[in-house]
């Protein structure tokens, strides 16, 4: 399983991107932070929507203005989705309740624009996985995923 968490993949369409996430999700632990970075339009929000769909969650949107949105499926599994694109400073992050999220016993926390965050401050007892997105063409994306 760990090989899927330390790999590179080029996907050519949404179906291939969804298959990628279907392979990744079983390798995630109960307390996991997915740290997503890449240019605008590279596939971060689309990936979150596909992950949520795989997990049985609906109506997932980008939390650009709210910074944080939470979703749960019928089994009670939680997904906390953060978008740090509009983050101005540490006070914005603090007021979003960001640090409180790590008191949960079980959650998948997905952070878009994670490169605006200092990974050193993330809790040690959570699995941390970085996903870098590169837009190669209108439909083709390169994804690099690695465990930190």
From TrEMBL:
InterPro entries: P-loop_NTPase, T6A_TsaE
A Gene Ontology term for the protein's cellular component: cytoplasm
Keywords for the protein's UniProt record, in alphabetical order: ATP-binding, Cytoplasm, Magnesium, Metal-binding, Nucleotide-binding, tRNA processing
Subcellular location(s) of the protein: Cytoplasm
Main location: cytoplasm
GO biological process: tRNA threonylcarbamoyladenosine modification
Transmembrane segments: none
Molecular function GO terms recorded: ATP binding; metal ion binding
Coiled coil feature spans: none
Superkingdom of origin: Bacteria
Family note: Belongs to the TsaE family.
PANTHER family named in the record: TRNA THREONYLCARBAMOYLADENOSINE BIOSYNTHESIS PROTEIN TSAE
NCBIfam families linked: T6A_YjeE (TIGR00150)
Protein name: tRNA threonylcarbamoyladenosine biosynthesis protein TsaE
Protein source organism: Bdellovibrio bacteriovorus
């Amino acid at each position: 399983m760990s090989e899927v968490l330390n790999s590179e993949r080029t996907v050519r369409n949404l179906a291939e991107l969804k298959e990628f996430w279907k392979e990744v999700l079983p390798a995630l632990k109960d307390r996991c932070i997915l740290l997503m970075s890449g240019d605008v339009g590279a596939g971060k929000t689309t990936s979150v929507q596909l992950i949520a769909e795989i997990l049985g969650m609906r109506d997932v949107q980008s939390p650009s203005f709210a910074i944080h949105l939470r979703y749960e499926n019928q089994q009670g599994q939680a997904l906390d989705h953060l978008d740090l694109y509009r983050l101005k400073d540490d006070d914005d992050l603090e007021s979003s309740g960001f640090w409180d999220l790590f008191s949960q016993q079980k959650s998948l926390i997905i952070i878009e624009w994670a490169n605006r965050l200092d990974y050193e401050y993330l809790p040690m007892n959570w699995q941390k996985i970085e996903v870098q997105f590169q837009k190669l063409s209108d439909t083709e994306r390169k994804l690099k995923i690695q465990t930190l």
